[in-house]
Each structure stands twice: as C-alpha cells, then as structure tokens.
Amino acid sequence: MTPPQRKIIHVDMDAFYASVEQRDDPALRGRPVVVAWRGKRSVVCAASYEARRFGVRSAMPALRAERLCPQAVFVPPDFVRYKAVSRQVHAIFARHTDLIEPLSLDEAYLDVSANASGLPSATAAAKAIRAAIREETRLTASAGVAPNKFVAKIASDFRKPDGLFVVRPHQVEAFLAPLPVGRLPGVGKVMERRLAALGVAVVADLRGFAAEDLEHRFGRWGRRLHELAYGIDEHPVVSGRPTLQISSEDTFEHDLLLAETEPHIRRLAEHNWAGYQRERMQHPERIARTVVLKLKTGDFRILTRSLTPPQPPASAQALAEIACALRERVGLPSRTRYRLVGVGLTGFAGPDDLAAQPELFEPG
After folding, report:
1. CA-based, 20 to 30 A from 55: which of 43, 161, 170, 296?
2. Measured between alpha carbons, how far is residue 328 from residues 259, 303, 334 in Å?
3. What is the rounded radius of gyration, in angstroms, for the C-alpha atoms of the chain?
4. Is 36 within 8 Å of 62 (Cβ atoms)?
5. Which domains, ranges and CATH numbers included, belong to the chain?
6. 106 is in an annotated binding site
7. Catalytic pick among 21, 50, 66, 107
C-alpha cells in the first residue's frame, strides 16, 4: 500500500535576530543592522535585509561586513531575547501540530498531515501560522509547503521575505528541474564542481544518469542524489531531536600551509560557540565534550583529529585553543597545503556523564 502523502511546512523567520532588534528599537528600522560583536575575531550572527543589499551575510567576519557596509549599525546579540521570541513562535506552531522539528531558533519543519487546528489544507495552516506570527510578535516569516522536508525548505526561500510558496505533489519534479544542483541538500561547492565536470548544472541534468551510474561514481551518496533529483525524501519530521554536533568549515581561496590556518580556525570556533550557546538555551543539560578539527589537503585527502578534554571547553577562546592544538597531531610534512579547515563540537551528554575521559584521536 502507498503510504499517505505527507504535508510539510518549513517556516523560516525573516532576518530573525536583526528583525527583533529593529522591532524593539525604532531607530534601527530601515537601517542596515548587523548583529555581531565588534572585533577582529567576531563573526556576523545576522544581517537585516538593508545590510544584505551590501553583501553582508551571516557567518561572515565582522571586519569584512564593516568594509562592505561602513554605515552599518552593529548590535551585540541578545540570545535570551531571541529565545523568548522563538518560544512565542513555537507556541503558534503547536496550535497546529505536535510534530515540530526545530532547526534553530528561527526555523522549523512542521508535519501538518493531521492538522490539529482543523484547517482544510497545509496551505491554509501555513497562512494562519504566518498571520499569527505577524500579529503576536510583530515579525514576519516565510514558509514553504511541500510533500517532504527538503522541497519545503527550498520552497520557503522562493518568496522571501514575508512570502509563502506551495509545491503540490504533482509539481515537485517540475519545480526542481531548473534549479542549480547546489540547491540540493548536501551538494557543496566541491560536489558542484565534480558534477559540472559531468555536464550537470541543474537538477534536470542529474536525471540523465541512472541511479546505478551515480552510485558507481559517488558511492551511496550517488543513489541519494538520484532520489533528490526526483524529489524523493522519506525523512519524517522528528520532534525533540537533540543536536548531535555543531560544526562549520571554510574552503580557502588558495591552499594554505597548516601554520596559516589559525585565523580561520579561530573564526570558525567563534561561530560554532555562538551556535552552541543557542543549543544550550534550548537544552541546558546537554554539554558538548569533544572538539573536532577537520582538514582537507590540496589533493582532497580528508583528516580529522578530536580531543575529549577532562573539562569541556568553557568559551570560544578555549574551543579555538584546543582546535589549534590539534594541528600538532596531523603528522603530515610541513610543506603540505590544505584547501579546507573545519571545527566541530560533538559528544553531547548530560552533566552526570561528564566524568573525566582519556584523550580520543581519530586517525586520518
């Protein structure tokens, strides 16, 4: 029997942190607002749409944002306030379904296949949710409606800000066909280049390859690519899913020596620490124990090194120091060049599990 079609909504608050700041301070409205601490090691947490017109984006070094938009107003982040607004928004979600999977403070998947509010369709539910958010928080949200999670997430970007885009089941393949393959989840810049070498630029091009061919070229990920090209995604919305890791990575414009990676590691550590603090606000009992350093050499060899210290890192600086120190365990010639570095926090556990543990390193 064919399982019933899911009805998924992806809701994404518009420039959330910056919009909260503009809402609460009328002097900021209409001005380019950058939510970030000032300083050479700071990164942008959020940028208003006025700032985005100058090329400012989240996770960008704050110094670069200042160069792109000298007239920007820098506001230090207030995660306690953002968390309070996020709780308001999630209370609105809960009126429609119990199946809510938060991705962050400002976005979530909702499965409204069985709509608790009694509305006749997922589209009607999405409209009601967006209207309630506007009325109760004085903020705007964009939403995508689709039969699965990844299509709903892509759709929510189509009419940002303050928009709604609906992809019905019979429209999925046509909707995906003209999109760049980089819009598919998991397809980063490196995979884009590998696919471009095969003549694949948009999703429709990907359909010219059999699943077996893609699997031969890319392993199990190739079969997943084939499924995504046709809009197939059976992953359910999972409520209450705990974060297993927080990580980010940076691909360099030019390959670097290991000793030259420190500024990038420190910037990534600060970015991850901000994400970790957001996670702790939602799950204060869960503490990340393990620091991971990821490196990719110029010839695409991937190495990881990890450490579980006796005491978990207590600051962005401590995280950066551990990640930088892990470079000493790489063990490759000093002339080796690297095209990518990543920093991660993992090993989440409750306080009762935080007994001192030996160092743990993963071989590359």
Report:
1. 296
2. 10, 13, 11
3. 22
4. yes
5. 1-172 (3.30.70.270), 177-229 (1.10.150.20), 245-353 (3.30.1490.100)
6. yes
7. 107
Q: Which residue's entry shows tokens 């570095």?
A: 341
CB 337 within 8 A of CB 252: no
Per-residue b or e along 323-343, where b marks 16 or more CB atoms closer than 10 Å to that residue's CB: bbebbebbeeeeebebbbbbb
Q: Look-up: residue for tokens 């994404």?
A: 12
Which tens digits make up the pLDDT trace of 233-277? 988 998 866 667 888 888 787 899 999 999 999 999 998 998 888
Q: For 311, which DSSP code?
A: S
Q: Quick check: 10 and 156 in contact, CB under 8 A?
A: yes
Residue 262 appears among annotated catalytic residues:
no
In this structure, which long-range contacts are made by residues 233-238, counting pairs with CB atoms below 8 Å and at least 24 apart in sequence?
Answer: 233/148, 233/149, 233/150, 233/151, 234/148, 235/148, 235/149, 235/150, 236/6, 236/99, 236/111, 237/6, 237/8, 237/99, 237/100, 237/101, 237/109, 237/110, 237/111, 237/149, 238/101
Residue 303 forms beta bridges with which residues?
295
CA distance 223 to 173: 17
pLDDT of 359 higher than 70: no
Q: What are phi and psi of 307, to 5 degrees?
A: -140, 135
Question: Which of these, 239, 349, 345, 241, lies nearest to 286 by C-alpha position?
Answer: 349
- Tokens read off for 162: 């303050």
Looking only at the bridges linking them, the beta strands covering 245-257 and 337-349 are antiparallel
pLDDT digits (tens, 9 = 90+) for 191-204: 899 999 999 999 99
- Residue 228 has which token pair? 């995504």
